[in-house]
Design brief:
It contains 18 helices and no strands. With 467 residues, it is mainly alpha-helical. It has two domains: 397 residues, Growth Hormone, Chain: A, CATH 1.20.1250; 51 residues.
Length: 467
């Protein structure tokens, strides 16, 4: 039985609760692993580049599978795909907790990423399906606040668990939380959402897309090596073939016409891609800065890093409500401007930088990102018809995940260039600091350009808001 278009009050609250818990768990996992990286590297004796793959493997898998599962959820049911995703995430978390080597941990993180892709693309789409347009921004804001709450708690709690119970405890913690969500879905969530039931799945398009994204993201991680440049170029060629295929097929896995005919959808997605490309590696870089250069333990570093997601969590629901009343692209652009300012402050950090300076920069970033994310997501989801919710939700997840991977890739490129594939030791701390400064310069320029993408508003968005 299909769920009602707008959903009754009970369905709306249950859907929001389940999506919010899932939205809390997945970013908590990612952010807490960031803090634990030095401990993981110490146990497995991994170099800086291999360390980054413990994060990148998760993001790569999630990005590659987001679009295919977005389409599959439209055909077979969003609740079904969400549930399967949570089961995969829970099992892979348990496997990661007992990983015997860095390579096996990376493999289990890949599987965890597949589960998260299924969760990411369906959680938001279910919320959009059950909430009417007048309440949509508020619901998105609450859901994003759950994301930021996970990010807020992750550094201090992740640091505490890593310091006293070891990094494996982070993965063990995900098991009961995953089981809680699965129980709530079977017990409380009624109905199903499948707007394209019975339609054909575009398997060739899904394969081409996955290969293209893998080549681009893997190749980018190998730059500045010649092999990395070649693989990235090959990925761009394959993605061009994907666009050609999607424009000619009757039931595309990702309707590319949305990008060509819907200005709001296209530029809001571009703004999201730029924003995540310029911000995700901030915690990664500052964690290295605090633990290696400043000599803080994981718990202390985590407490400092919580300021950014804390202010994200505070601002996001407020920004979501604002985007129900005013033009989302204006609010998002103000947020992007503040993010640019926050990134600019970190260009000037050095070995003697005070913690107050770091905290102020993190607060500015948190406020800016909180103002950007909810309204930008509302602009994307509000610019498409109901039958495209799965694809639009997948595009939101893909921009985030690809952006996060590119962000980490940019950081890794400069760390690799200045340090090389060696363990980070006191003798190369100066080179590490230089790589961090240069990376923040690149991020600041990227985010400044993103302001202009965020400002673009199409005719469809204006028409929908005036109804």
């Amino acid at each position: 039985m299909e769920a009602d278009n707008k959903g009754n009050d009970s369905t709306k609250m249950v859907a929001l609760l389940i999506a919010a818990i899932a939205s809390f768990i997945t970013p908590f996992m990612g952010a807490s692993v960031n803090v634990a990286l030095p401990s993981i590297a110490s146990e497995f004796a991994t170099d800086a580049v291999l360390q980054s793959w413990i994060i990148s493997s998760f993001l790569l898998a999630a990005a590659i599978f987001a679009v295919p599962f977005g389409r599959i959820s439209e055909i077979h049911g969003m609740k079904k795909i969400f549930t399967y995703g949570m089961i995969i995430f829970t099992i892979s978390s348990l496997l990661a907790a007992v990983a015997p080597s860095a390579i096996s941990l990376i493999l289990f993180r890949l599987i965890q990423g597949i589960g998260c892709a299924m969760i990411f693309v369906t959680g938001l789409a279910i919320i959009i399906s059950v909430f009417p347009p007048k309440d949509r921004g508020k619901a998105i804001g609450i859901n994003i606040a759950a994301v930021y709450t996970g990010l807020t708690i992750a550094p201090p709690l992740g640091g505490l668990l890593t310091q006293y119970l070891g990094w494996r405890s982070l993965f063990y913690l995900m098991v009961p939380l995953g089981l809680l969500v699965i129980t709530l879905v079977f017990w409380k969530l009624r109905g199903e959402w499948a707007e394209s039931r019975g339609e054909k799945f575009d398997l060739p398009g899904a394969i081409i897309y996955s290969v293209a994204l893998f080549l681009i993201m893997y190749g980018f991680s190998l730059i500045p090596q010649i092999l990395g440049i070649g693989i990235t170029i090959a990925g761009v060629i394959v993605i061009s073939a994907f666009v050609w295929w999607e424009l000619k097929t009757e039931t595309p896995v990702f309707d590319m016409k949305l990008f060509f005919k819907n200005t709001t959808f296209a530029f809001s997605n571009l703004a999201a891609l730029i924003n995540y490309s310029a911000t995700f590696a901030v915690v990664f870089l500052l964690n290295y800065y605090l633990q290696y250069i400043k000599g803080f333990d994981p718990q202390s570093a985590g407490l400092i890093l919580l300021f950014q997601p804390l202010f994200m969590a505070i601002v996001a629901p407020f920004a979501g409500r604002l985007s129900d009343r005013y033009e989302p692209h204006i609010i998002a652009s103000i947020g992007m401007s503040l993010v640019t300012l926050g990134l600019l402050t970190f260009v000037f950090i050095n070995a003697n930088t005070t913690m107050l300076f770091i905290i102020v920069g993190l607060v500015i970033l948190g406020i800016g990102f909180g103002l950007f994310s909810s309204p930008n997501t509302n602009a994307i989801m509000g610019s498409v018809e109901r039958r495209f919710y799965g694809v639009a939700s997948a595009s939101v997840s893909t921009m985030r995940l690809v952006g996060q991977t590119l962000s980490l890739g940019i950081a890794t490129i400069f760390i690799s260039f200045y340090i090389g594939r060696v363990q980070i030791m006191p003798e190369n701390y100066a080179a590490l600091l230089q790589s961090i400064q240069v990376t923040f310069i690149v991020f600041t320029v990227l985010c400044f350009l993103g302001i202009f993408a965020s400002l673009v508003k199409g005719k469809k968005a204006a028409e929908k808001r005036n109804k």
